[in-house]
Amino acid sequence: MQRIFLFLYRIRAFLLFVALEAIAIFLIVSNNSQQGSAALNSANQLSGSILNTQSNVLDYFSLATVNKALVDKNANLLAELEKFKRPADSVYIELDSVLSASFQFKGAKVINNSIHHSQNYLTINRGSAHGIKEGMGVFNEEGVVGRVKAVTKNFASVISLLHTDLLVSSKVKSSEVFGSTKWDAADPKRAKMLYVPRHVSIEIGDEIVTSGYNAVFPEGISIGKVINVQPGKETNYLDITLELSTDFTRISYVYLVENNQEQELDELYESSSISNE
Amino acid sequence: MNSRKIFYLIVSFFLFLLVQVLILKNMVIFGVVFCFLYVLYLLLLPLEFKVITMLLISFIIGISVDLFYDTMGIHTASLLVIGFIRNQWIKIITPTGGYDEDLQPTFLNMGFGWFLTYSIPLFLIHHFLFFSIEMLGTDLFIPVIQKTVFSATFVFIISIIVQLLFYRRRRGV
Predict the structure, then answer these.
(1) According to DSSP H, which parts of chain B are helical?
(2) Name one GO biological process term (chain A) (predicted).
């Protein structure tokens, strides 16, 4: 018995190594879920506040681009608004209240961002105190950015679209053909659109937008443009490459969208056992 | 190991960490050259440190860097390996005449050739582990090798510069 203890004592360094390595591997594996605890990522109070300070300093350098983007967004919104202005002599009938007001929008500032890993995350300076919830969709004026993974009181961690596990339900704007957009970890400017059958004809230059099926994003938020279509080598689907419309290298402000009916939709999918991605 | 040395090590720990997460994190050249300078902190710990101490220190550095990189556990897992094999590696490459106790293995103290043999393999192992764990699940192997080789070379150059600027040649710390 004593010899066993002596032996264990002699390899104590190795045992400690194995134990710590096991903790690290456990952390890697448990962090892979799409929604999880925010204690051990950049959304926690300590790292969140440090990153916030850093972002406050660096903000001044991106003011020009941010202003320009905001002006563009405003111009777009004004153009949109013009469509809804009714002439004085028309009669307005509200068709269905279910279709209106099911989405709520919030704004936030990105304080941490990465694009060079295969699983990238962003951190934003809004948290549960400002009404941010897990699973909310995130986009900016250019297009889809990602989805909220974890929330603390003042910060939230967002799974970037540049994350190999995130699927975004999407469709071709002109032909309504739908599929899922997923990043393949190769180039931060490009992604793949999956699950589009071979018989569908897709042109280079077709615009891809969110489909609105998965209730995370409203319909019609830009994702990218098709730059290459090939028949898939191993599957029955087309191999479609998109150029993402969002420039992930310079994201500074984002919008968050919450679907008030997401829970109801999720319950429906669950009770009929359809997976909602 | 006097208290001045310990104070010095703790201060440089925080400096390395802050520089890593505030500056070097945003500095990625051509999408393949990363700068994980915090590995240098581990390599420059005094020779007298035992494996257990090395492991605990590397665990703390790894977790802190992971917090800011949002790569929970990946930096930790690869850094622990370095912490575990460093002392063995130092023993293997002992120069004739052996080491002085309580010496910091900087290239100023040990010479350029020794530091090259000492640090390059450890940088390569760390970077290779980091990028392959990170790319796990994708079928991209070439980028892993690319990133490993370029980043390790870059970190080596930066670590030489850092030592020239901030370390003095002397016996002990």
Answers:
(1) 3-18, 38-43, 51-69, 74-92, 107-110, 112-134, 142-166
(2) regulation of cell shape
The boundaries of the domain holding residue A254 are 35-84+103-277
How would you classify the pairing of strands A253-259 and A137-139?
A: antiparallel
Query: Nearest Cβ partner of B70 from A13, A24, A114?
Result: A114
Cross-chain Cβ contact B73/A17 below 8 Å: no
ipTM topping 0.95: no
Query: What are the tens digits of pLDDT across the range A220-265?
Result: 889 999 998 988 777 788 889 999 999 888 888 888 888 777 777 7
Joined tokens for residue A87? 């002439």
Is A90 part of a structural domain of the chain? Answer: no
Q: Could you tell me if residue A275 is inside a domain? A: yes
Q: What is the CATH number of the domain that holds A112?
A: 2.40.10.340
Comparing CB atoms, the residue among A12, A42, A184 nearest residue B52 is A12
Find the CB nearest B70 among A23, A25, A157.
A157
Residue A194 lies in a domain: yes
pLDDT tens digit at each of 173 positions of chain B:
678 888 988 999 999 999 998 888 888 888 788 889 999 999 998 888 889 999 999 999 999 998 888 888 889 999 999 999 998 998 888 877 777 777 788 888 888 888 999 999 999 999 999 988 888 767 778 888 988 999 999 999 999 999 999 887 765 44
Asked if B55's CB is within 8 angstroms of A28's CB, the reply is no
Asked, for residue A94, whether it belongs to a domain, the answer is: no
> Which residues on chain A are in Cβ contact (under 8 Å) with B137?
118, 164
Domains in chain B: boundaries: 3-166
| Residues from chain B contacting residue A51 (CB–CB below 8 Å) | 68
CA angle B53, B54, B56 (to 5 degrees): 65
Residue B46: name the closest of B86, B85, B98, B96 by CA.
Answer: B86
A12 contacts B22? CB cut-off 8 A: no
User: Given an 8 Å threshold on Cβ–Cβ distance, is B138 in contact with A118?
Assistant: yes
Hunting for tokens 């951190």 — which residue is that? Answer: A123
